[in-house]
Amino acid sequence: MNQTAAPSVTPIKAPTPAALRRLVYGLLITIAVAGVVGRILGVGRVIEPWLFRPDGVAAEEDPRGAWPVTRPEPMPTHGDNDRSRWVTIRTLVDQGTYVIGHREPNTLDPKGYTDTGPATEDGWRTIDKVMNPDTRDFYSSKPPLLPTILAGEYWLFKHVAGWSIVENRWQVVPTILLTVNALPFLIYLMLLAKTVEQLGLTDWGRLFVLAAGCFATLLTPFLTTLNNHTIAACTAMFTLYLAIRIWNSVASPACQFALAGFFAGFTACNELPAAAFAAAIGFLLLLKAPRQTLLLFLPALAAPVAGFFLTNYAAIGHWRPAYSEFGGPWYEYEGSHWKPIPGKMNGIDWAGTKESEATYAFHLLLGHHGLFSLTPIFLLTFVGIVLALVRRDGQRWSALKLVAGGTLLLTVVVVGFYIFKVGDRSRNYGGWTTGLRWLMWLTPLWLVSMLPAADWLSTRRLGRGVGYALLAVSVMSISYAAWNPWRHPWLYNFLEARGWIGY
User: Fold this and answer.
1) Bridge partners of 129?
2) Residue 410 in contact with residue 255, Cβ under 8 Å?
3) What does the alpha-carbon distance between residue 64 and residue 54 come to, in Å, rounded to a whole number?
4) Is the pLDDT of residue 167 over 80?
5) pLDDT band for position 493 (50/70/90)?
6) Residue 10 banded pLDDT, cuts 50, 70, 90
7) Which of 259, 370, 400, 433 has the fewest CB atoms within 10 Å, counting from its CB?
């Protein structure tokens, strides 16, 4: 009798720890980026009833605005901040100008003037604009470099696909957000994964830091809106990754120096305090490879900086940015949100006029907009910095030590700048925002510097429990206003509801 032989089964080889980590990295990044893409495709302005005073209540009793009498224009944008950039993109392509509006005297109007232009239309209005007192033309108060670049993308949509940002806004705006936010975020997470794989020591520590980068930082909610902060955080990560590669290599390709310089310069163009970051990276690379730094890094860095000033001059006729005019006639024209009027300076935009520097510093770090109260995972950053600096690993100037030391110095300088160097009217926590958006560009530095602390926690059950708790609170804070980052944090709303703060 013939017996059929049992089919042979090829044993499945168990993946190595490194291969298994890469699989988990891929899963985390896929979930994070897909979630962002979904929210971008569904982006839309939401009008919340609780932000308006009840019918029949006078403005003197309740400073909140009245509920709209007519339906607001549906828009795939969120607030004044991002509309300020979108209206610039619109006028650049559709009208060939940076001017977003104009004011003419009008004795027949009770206000004494009439404003015209795209920035006066429903869905395009913004308080983030300045007026040239000589020409009475309105401009966005935001630096024009980023809107100019994105206007090039809209130009292609208009002339190739026939899309208008007015009529086809639901196609144009999300598509641009996918290219300027979602795609850089994908690359950001991939480079973060490579960095933690290289510098981390434990499986749990590496995965913890990447999970925090995917779900527990301010980048997540801000990726659905046009802003300078997320792109600055991404380009800071690109710069950091390239700088670490150059530092750890015997000889690096020329393109790495050029790319590091370009991204360092572009980071500084989007976040002025990041000029210190660009200078620090340039100094370290100068020590490592003077010739390549001088011939490649510095010229590449100068390119976006030149673009910043050239577009600024093209827009408003000045080399200095429009926001440098804060407190002057460019901002404080009649009807401006930023003109101080006694009795009407209510809301968080005027917080600095009602509290001391000490109170502001407390809320900046531990209070209603606190870095550590809303995203306590970053407490581990400073534990990690200490551990990295005292670690005896046989490398006096290892990449991780340099990142940790540089992160500590930059954080102290930048936080100190916002506490002590800006005027009281600028101490407003970034306005209506779900967290400290001004510090967002430091996120990749904080995450990488967290690695030694995460590795240390990984070896202890209690330590891992603490890590999970800090991660959970951070994710909750970030998810609180996932539909619109231009809203107050949960802690602010909690304190305000109990009457413990009142701006």
Assistant:
1) 140
2) no
3) 9
4) yes
5) very high
6) low
7) 259
Tokens of 393: 């690993």
pLDDT at 308: 97
Q: DSSP string spanning 309-320? A: HHHHHHHHS-SS
Compute the distance between CA of residue 386 and CA of residue 406 in angstroms, rounded to an integer: 12
- Rounded to 5 degrees, what are φ and ψ at 121? -85, 150
pLDDT averaged over every residue in the chain: 93
Task: Please answer whether residues 450 and 381 qualify as being in contact, where contact means their C-beta atoms are separated by less than 8 angstroms.
Answer: yes
Residues 6+ apart with CB under 8 A from 334: 111, 112, 113
Other CB atoms within 10 A of residue 121 CB = 14
Please list, in sequence order, all residues whose beta carbon lies within 8 angstroms of the beta carbon of residue 442, skipping any fewer than 6 positions away: 233, 236, 407, 410, 411, 414
Written as six digits, the tokens of 180 are 């300027």
Q: Which amino acid is at 182?
A: A
DSSP 281-336: HHHHHHHH-HHHIIIIIHHHHHHHHHHHHHHHHHHHS-SS-GGGGTTSTTT--TT-
As a whole number of angstroms, the distance between CA 321 and CA 142 comes to: 8
Instruction: Lowest mean pLDDT of 125-139, 161-175, 321-335, name the range.
Output: 321-335
- Give CA 489 to chain center in angstroms: 16
Give how far Cα 412 sits from Cα of 101, 383, 419, 439, Å. Answer: 40, 15, 10, 11
Q: Supply 112's token pair.
A: 């004494």
Distance CA 196, CA 56 (A): 57
| 79-90 pLDDT per residue, tens | 899 999 999 999
